[in-house]
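Justification of resources, computational component.

The compute hours requested in this renewal are based largely on the per-chain cost of generating structure records like the one below. Each record pairs the submitted sequence with a full structure-token output. That output is archived, and it is also reused by downstream analysis tasks.
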Amino acid sequence: MEYFKKVLLFLANQMIPGWGLMIAGSYGLGALFYLASIGLLIVLSWAGLIFLKTVIFLYILIYILVAVISGIYGWKRKYLSINGWQWCTRVASFLFLPLIIVTIAIYKPVLLGWQLYQIPSPSMSPVLRVGDIIIADARPWVLNNVSKGDIMIFYPPNSNNYFYIKRVIGVGGDTILIENGQLAVNGKVQLSDLATKTMSERSIAEGHFFMMGDNHVQSRDSRYWGDVSEEKLVAKYVRVIFRNKE
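The structure output for this chain reads:
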């Protein structure tokens, strides 16, 4: 029975570093391992380092190392019999750490400053394919510094129920015109052979953006539903972390 307990606590420490230790009553040591793994993720995220492939790889290695070390510490400890109150605190520990993990997973944009998305349509092809999983930067100061050419995730003007991902073609103060299938920004042709042959000249208000999909033939964007206000911006595309090969 004692061996079985050790195995379960070791596995708990592998799932969440320090979890097994806290369940076993080693709250201080368990919290130390837990904070070492989660705290590092928070620091790397808000510093913007988590977007680097090398840093992601190193963090995964560190997480595994911390999990293994916490598991070894837990395996070596001797566990004494406990009373009813101690069982209550351990049950609370059993529920508390996973709850924090779930909360962080759900509110990543707010708590970590980034989010993962899966591309649902070919509107940004060939840069982004259907099924690609991307990481996007949701830190507030990044969303306040959007430039032409950036790929943004945002809510469309008429809804807050679903996201779009498009490229910024024009910003506040720009004029946009489509004539004979050519898109001009401030009088300079930027794109040709558009499926949309004409669009009356439009001045973009400050704090708004003209968005278009790279695959303009299969994209519903600002040509159809107007400019996007900065309040609708959700995140800025950083990189593909899983490429759909199909």
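The CA atoms of residues 25 and 116 lie 35 Å apart. DSSP finds eight helices and eleven strands in the chain.
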